[in-house]
Structures are given as C-alpha cells and as structure tokens.
Amino acid sequence: MTGEIKWRYFFAHKNKSTPLSCLSPEVKEQFRTDLFKIINQYKSIKIISVIADANQCYLRSHINGEDDLYWFAYKRLAERFQYYLQDLSREAGGKMNGIVVCDHRERRQDKRLQNMHYKMMHGEEEFTSKFENILEGVFIVPSHFSTGIQLADMVAGSIYRWFTKNDDRYYRQIYNRIRTSPSGKVEGYGIVKLH
Questions:
Q1: To 10 degrees, what angle do helices 66-92 and 107-121 make?
Q2: I need a surface site. Which of 1, 82, 105, 146 has the fewest CB within 10 A?
C-alpha cells in the first residue's frame, strides 16, 4: 500500500479509490489501531485540540465566515500550545521552544493564516498572549509530505467522531496522550470547546 493516510479514507467512498480501498474493513480497523499505538507509545506526545461548534460560533459577532472561525479556533490552539511549552520549560528547568506546522489548505487561506499568525506572534492582535516559546512563523506543509500531519489528521478524526457522533472508541485509544492539568483535567488544557 502506498499513498497518504487520512481519517476519511477509513470509510467507504463510492466511485472513488483511496490508498486504503484495497483493504478489508477488518484490516482497516487494525491499521487504524496500529496508528494510534504509534501515538501512544511516545509519552512525550501531547495532544491539544480545539472543538468548535460552528453553529454556536457563528452567533458571535466577530465570526462572519469560515476564515474567522478557523482563526478563532487556531488562536485558541496556539495559546494552549504556548501554555504547554511554558509548563514544559518549568519542568525542564530551561526554555523549551516549539514550532507550529499546519496542513496546506488553499493559497489565499494559507496566506491569510500566515499574516494572522505573524500579527499574533508580534502582539499586533487584540487580547493576545505572549508567544515567547513558539519559534518563527507558521510552517504550512501539504499533508502528503508530512507523516506528522497525517497522524494529526487521525487524532482530529477520532476527536471529531467522539464530539459529533458520540462515538468515543477511537478517542479512548489516544486519551492518554491528551494534555491535562496537574490534577488530570482535560477540558481547557488538551481539549478546548468553543461555543
């Protein structure tokens, strides 16, 4: 089997071939489980995810389109990443830095994200945290060039399925890698819900 791994490829596609089309449902299920085992075997992996209820978010006065919603969620994600790096720095006794890598979307959207990220990093956005541990600009890479982005897609798919379908069987497989508070709280730390 060759090709990119995406969450949606694990489900049947009428009249469309994917890199996973050649696999039986049982083999796909085992393959997905094996991918989650890869994520789980590294204790240094911490999952931070933002879940946005689009219908509720669009009721906010500052969200007027999908780019606004994307930015609203992205900013919350970047903030939690910064907080994680700060926590990690305290534990390590020295400054720990990180980079933001995003999946390529569409040229106009990518450019807008880069501009907004720059403003956020340099304090030009209103009500913005200081992002002292995040290096440089946002790195945008097509997912078929990045194993990490493909694994992130699998994580996002499992969280999406839990949130929208109330099906937590995949979420449970990655739960131990989700960032928590010192007391073990997930919400607000590893999972941020936007309404």
A1: 50
A2: 1
Angle among Cα 54, 195, 142 to the nearest 5 degrees reads 50
Within 10 angstroms of residue 22's Cβ, the number of other Cβ atoms is 10
CA 91 – CA 16 distance, rounded (Å): 48
Around 8, how many Cα atoms within 13 Å sit in the side-chain half-sphere?
A: 5
DSSP-assigned beta bridge partners for residue 194? 52
Burial class (CB in 10 A: 0-12, 13-18, 19+), 80: buried
Residue with tokens 């989650």: 36
pTM assigned to the model: 0.89
Q: How many CB atoms lie within 10 A of CB 157?
A: 19
Which tokens in the block code for residue 39?
């994520």
